[in-house]
Amino acid sequence: MIKLNQLIRSFSYALRGFKFVWQEQNFKIQILIALIVVILMYLYNLTRLERVALIIVISAVLILESLNTIFEHLADILKPRLHDYIMIIKDIMAAIVLMASIGAVIIGLLIFWPYFFG
Question: What's 23-117's CATH class?
Answer without folding.
Answer: mainly alpha
